[in-house]
Amino acid sequence: MLKPDTHYQMSAVPDIEMTLTGTAAAGGVPLYGCDCPACLRAVRNPAYRRRATSAKVKTKSETLCIDCGLMNLAEHYPPGSLDAILLTHFHVDHVQGLFELRWGKGQKIPVYCPNDPAGCADLLKHSGILDFRPIQPFEPLLLKSCTVTPLLLMHSRPCHGYLIERRGYRIAYLTDTVGLPDETLLWLTQHTPDMMILDCSHPPSENKPRNHNDLSIATEIHQQLGIKHTILTHISHDMDNWLIAGGQLAEGIELGHDGMTL
Amino acid sequence: MLKPDTHYQMSAVPDIEMTLTGTAAAGGVPLYGCDCPACLRAVRNPAYRRRATSAKVKTKSETLCIDCGLMNLAEHYPPGSLDAILLTHFHVDHVQGLFELRWGKGQKIPVYCPNDPAGCADLLKHSGILDFRPIQPFEPLLLKSCTVTPLLLMHSRPCHGYLIERRGYRIAYLTDTVGLPDETLLWLTQHTPDMMILDCSHPPSENKPRNHNDLSIATEIHQQLGIKHTILTHISHDMDNWLIAGGQLAEGIELGHDGMTL
Question: Is residue A27 less than 8 Å (CB to CB) from chain B?
């Protein structure tokens, strides 16, 4: 018979299911009125559409929502099914779905978020059923069956990545960011993720991008941390067009799409 | 043969088509997690759903959009088809669809709005293809084929109703408001609308409501102005429940619903 701790070690398999419910840069794909190949493809075939970057995390014990830019949150999270929300930051494309949800009924929903008192419009002032709980980078949260550690990112306002760990399996979700702060790089070196979801809004560019990774920076982070499997998210039509034109991703890096389950 | 001016008089028929693209109070119907009769009915039958209050105005010459709380604006207004946007005010449920649309391509879209420099989140700062044009109450705009006059409303932030006139036919669109300021009542007495779309968020209540009409106030406005046909909008689940329970509307007053064409 296996000892409990041996059993625990053997259970270090991915029993967290993550679904990328949205993978778009601000504006989505297609952009309104844009006739580039990526946008026309997305108009013709909804499988190529990208909506606001966000993810659903499911374990046997709980359901978490990372970011709330989708407006049909009630379809993704039927009332009573959502244990907590993790907000990366308060830009509109990451919180817009909360403006309706807040006026719902039932138990309060914890919303873990960066400490950013400005919030977005009147969301913090009129929070309804949302229980906003500002948290500090690198201070782990113990949820029902997993540990969630907020990680400092580099963006135009306070922004958290999240490392979700359950039974030794680790997924890092890192958007919106341009590069990674030294503290976060060091922390991730000490807690190497099995899988990483990473901001890659732009194709490789000569100029250093602001606010979001381009593919050069995303690839550098992937290789520097020695991640086996990185999925790119927060994708713009420019990034899609670069791939349509024949651009290649480095080994271990994959393009995310809406509805992708990991 | 008719004289041109006689012909003009005879053409004073409703050649403006207005569609109520949304008729909900903030939060929509159904509210997330609510099990009241109105919300359960809307869950079971999408015809009873209410989304963010908004309207489309079409004439032979132009298409206008009043308020942008819907997120699928591209479906309602294919690129190139939208001549102008009329914003009543900058609360999120009236502008949220613009946060994606702004990053589109093509000609700038004029957005007539109250003079409210705070706007909503970063919408005025990063306006993309939107050309915000603050306008003053009671100063008429001459558009392609109709005259639009902004009317002062009473709400928790600067808010305009709009009177749209074409060939002598007048539609007043008055939301969000609680009662009407004297200047607006006087102006409407001098320019009686043929049809009025009016905020009625709440059923009749003993206490004077804040920010939105209840049915008592809406009925008083309808009767005071001698309007033949008033359609109620910005409807909450409480208002729907009051009607489900047998509440009756006064003569000439009708309940709006999403998709209703006038």
Answer: yes
